[in-house]
């Protein structure tokens, strides 16, 4: 399976350079920052660091490597929750309102379900729920349509 190298964010150009163990190296440009996500509005530019307290809570009760990185381990659960939350934030930014709120200006484009999708990660297959909108204009950036890796 491909492994990823650490990501480098260049705040001057707002470009995310990601190099993967593949034959091609790509530079991916971020379109816009999403509120509540790293790099989004209202967040400073220093990298997010997970505190030791948060790690202690996540690892409480974990005894083996399988419980951390196995198919149903903490890492898989955390990855799934982060991706689902990021996709929801992307859709909220696209629609202009949060889930559970009324659309601004009446009945316009609205949420239209969250079909399941399996993506392949370094830890194995991961089942996420990718939200969609009624008009079909939402193009997620975190995990693109028809993307499986």
Description:
The chain has 149 residues and is of the alpha+beta class. The protein has two domains: 37 residues, no CATH class; 78 residues, no CATH class. Helices cover 23% and strands 15% of the residues. The protein has three helices and five strands. The strands form two sheets. A three-stranded antiparallel sheet has the order 1-2-3, with no helix packed on it. The longest helix has 22 residues. The N and C termini lie close together (10 Å). About 19% of the residues have low confidence.
Any key phrases for this structure?
single chain, 149 residues, alpha+beta, two-stranded antiparallel sheet
Query: How many separate domains?
Result: 2
What is the number of strand segments? Answer: 5
Mean pLDDT across the residues is: 76
Strand percent estimate: 15-25%
Q: Which sheet architecture does the biggest sheet show?
A: 3 strands, antiparallel
Q: Structural class, please?
A: alpha+beta
Series of H and E elements: EEEHHHEE
Rg measurement, Å: 17 Å
What percentage of residues falls in helices of 4 or more residues?
10-25%
Cross-sheet strand order for the largest sheet: 1-2-3
What is the count of DSSP helices, taking H or I runs of 4+ residues? 3
Q: Which segments are poorly predicted (pLDDT under 50) over 5 or more consecutive residues?
A: 4-31
3D shape: elongated
**Oligomerization state:** single chain
Query: How far apart are the termini?
Result: 10 Å
């Amino acid at each position: 399976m491909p492994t990823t190298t650490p990501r480098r964010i260049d705040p001057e150009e707002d470009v995310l350079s990601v190099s993967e163990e593949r034959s091609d190296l790509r530079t991916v440009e971020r379109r816009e920052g999403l509120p509540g996500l790293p790099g989004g509005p209202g967040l400073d530019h220093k990298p997010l660091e997970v505190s030791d307290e948060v790690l202690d809570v996540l690892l409480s009760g974990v005894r083996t490597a399988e419980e951390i990185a196995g198919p149903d381990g903490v890492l898989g659960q955390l990855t799934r929750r982060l991706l689902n939350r990021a996709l929801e934030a992307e859709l909220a930014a696209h629609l202009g309102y949060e889930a559970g709120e009324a659309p601004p200006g009446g009945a316009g484009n609205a949420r239209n379900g969250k079909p399941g999708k399996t993506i392949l990660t370094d830890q194995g297959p991961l089942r996420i729920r990718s939200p969609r909108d009624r008009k079909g204009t939402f193009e997620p950036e975190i995990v693109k349509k028809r993307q499986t890796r």
